[in-house]
Structure formats: structure tokens, C-alpha cells
């Protein structure tokens, strides 16, 4: 399972065409745009965990 997850994002791959932009958000998008799927799954998982954690006091 970990081999599959580690193979999704290649840390030693070239960063893509051109140099990264100097603006912070554009810099992040330059690298995240190369592999948007894993980052989207990570974002949705984080939001789900935060929502479940927020509901814990309601169910006590």
C-alpha cells in the first residue's frame, strides 16, 4: 500500500516547464498543479476529519 502512495508523487522528478513563479500562491500552484489528485484527496480527508472532530461534543 505504501509503495502505491509513494509512487503518486515523485520527489526526484524535474519540477516541470519553466521556473517557479516568485508569488507565494503561484509558487504552490506550480507544484500542486502537477499532481492535483493526491492533494485533493488530502484536502477532502482533512476537511472530513475536522468536521467529525467538531461534532464530537454534540454526540457526548
Explain briefly what this protein structure is.
This protein is an all-alpha fold. Helices cover 60% and strands 0% of the residues.
**Helix content bin:** 55-70%
Rounded Rg: 16 Å
Number of strands: 0
Gross geometry: elongated
Major sheet summary line: none
Distance from first to last alpha carbon:
35 Å
Q: What class, by secondary structure content?
A: mainly alpha
Approximate strand percentage: under 5%
Helix and strand run: HHH
Helical stretch tally:
3
Q: List unreliable stretches of 5+ residues.
A: none
Mean pLDDT: 84
SSE map:
Layout: H1 2-8, H2 24-32, H3 36-55
How would you describe this protein?
With 60 residues, this protein is an all-alpha fold. It has a domain at 22-60. It is built from 3 helices and no strands. The longest helix has 20 residues, at 36-55. The mean pLDDT is 84.
Which descriptors apply to this entry?
60 residues; mainly alpha; single chain
